[in-house]
Amino acid sequence: MTDVPRVVLSAPSSGHGTGAVSLGVLAALTDRGIPVAGFKVGPDQVDAAYLGLAAGRAGRTLDPRLVGPERIAPLFAYGAAGAGFALVQGTMGLYDSVAGRPESESTAAVATALRSPVVLVVDVAAMGQSVAALVHGFRAYDDELWLGGVILNRVASPRHEALLREALDDVGVPVYGALRRHELPPVLPARRFGTGPVVRADADAGRGVRRLGEAVAATVDLDRLLALARSAPALTVEPWSPEPPDSPQPGERPVVALAGGTAGAYSHPETAELLRAAGAEVVTLDPVRDEALPAGARALVVGGGLPETYAEQLSANRRLCIAVAELARSGRPVVAEGAGLLWLARELDGLPMCGVLDATGTVRDGLVVGYRTATAVTDSVVAAAGTTVTGHKQHAAVLTPRAGDRPAWRWEGGNPEGFVRQAVHASQLVPHWAAHPDIAARLVAAALAPVGEPA
C-alpha cells in the first residue's frame, strides 16, 4: 500500500501553462523543505527531466502505451516512495490521447488509476465567466474523475481575477491560485536542447526552475493544494521493483557505461536501476566532455534523451568516438536509442561521428513523432528475434540507409529499421525498459560473456 499525497495537473489543451506551473509547484514546495516527486504523463523525457530538477530527485514518465496501463500505479508508487508530495504533469488536454484511447492512455485515465485529484490549469487571458462553463464541463464529462479545482493563468487584473473567482464559486470549483500574464515568463533553455541542460547541470536550467518556484510561491495557495493532495486515498498496489524474481547471485559486476552527465542520464531512470539489479556496476559517461570510457567498461548504453543538437560537440570529442568504435569492434555490447544511433553513424550532416555503423545522418525540417509496436527482426543483446515491444520515436534526423543487413525492428506500414552488428543494437526507437526488464538482463549477460576475435 502506498500513501503519498498527490495531485495531477492538467489543462483543457496544450498551451495553458501546465508545465511551468508544475515546475513552480515542485520548486516552491522543495524550498519549504518538503520531499517531493515529479512525474510526466506520456513519453516526454524532457519534461520529466525538468520535473526531476525541480524536485531534487529523478523525474519519471508514466506512459500507459509504453509500459502498459497495469504498471502505471506500481511505477508511481515506486518513484514516489518517501515523498511528502507527488505531482503528475499531464499531457495535451485532460481527456486527450494521441492514439484515440482516452479510456486508458489519457491524463484522465492516469489520474483515475492513481486515485488522484486533478487540478486544471486554465489560460484565462481571453475568458470571463465562461471559465465556469468550461471547468464544469470537464468535471461533468467523467463521473469517475476527481476534479479538485483550478489554477488560473494569464489573469489580466485584480478585477478580472475577482470575476473569474466569482463565476467558479457559483459552480463550486475551488481556485488554488491566479497568475498574472507576466508571471510565468519563458525562463527555461530552448526545448531543442532536450534533456541536456538538466543532465549536464547547466546553470540556466536551475535558475529558470527557481524563478518559476518563486512565481508560484507568491500566487498559489500551496497549503490548500497540499491539503487537497493529502486527501487522496492510499493506493493498494505493490510498488514496481527493478529486482528480478530470482535475484542474481553475487559475482563479477561488469561496468556498464550509461550516457549522461553530472546530474543524470539520457535514459529513463529505471534503465540504470534495472541494470544495477541485473548485476551491473553503472557508471555515467558524458559523451560531450569525457574523452575516455570508464575504466573497465564492458558495455555502453546511450539513451533516447541524448539531444540531436549536440552533434558538433559529439563530433569534436574524437578520442571518445574512437574508444566507442573500439568497444563495438571488440564485440562488447553497445545499445543506442534515439539520437544515440546518429552518434554511432559514420557522419551526421558532414560531421564525423563514431563510425560504428556504415550510415550517414541528415537533419531535416520537421519531426518524426509517434509510437510504434515493433517486432525484433534479429537476435540481439536487446531482444530475441520475434519479440514485440512498443517504443516511441521523436527525431528530426534520418539515417541512410535506414537499416543494416541485420535490421533491429520492423513494424506495420514501415520498412525495417535499425542496426544489429555483433553486440551492437542501434535504433531510433526508444522503448521503456521497465516494460521489458529482460533487456537489462540480456545486456549484463552479454557484458559478462567472453568475446571472439575482433571483426
Structure at a glance:
This protein has 455 residues and is of the alpha/beta class. The protein is built from 16 helices and 20 strands. The chain has helices at 18-31, 45-55, 64-67, 72-79, 102-105, 107-113, 130-141, 158-170, 196-199, 203-219, 222-230, 269-277, 311-316, 318-329, 340-344, 438-448, and strands at residues 6-10, 36-41, 60-62, 85-89, 118-123, 147-155, 175-180, 255-261, 264-265, 281-285, 297-302, 334-337, 347-348, 351-352, 360-376, 388-400, 409-410, 419-421, 424-427, 430-431.
Structural class: alpha/beta
Low-pLDDT segments? none
Strand order of the largest sheet: 3-2-4-1-5-6-7
Report how far the terminal alpha carbons are from each other. Answer: 52 Å
| Alpha plus pi helix count | 16
How many strands appear in the DSSP assignment? 20
Helix content: 25-40%
Strand content: 15-25%
- Radius of gyration equals 23 Å
Give the CA-based shape.
Answer: elongated
Overall pLDDT level? 95
Note the main sheet.
7 strands, parallel
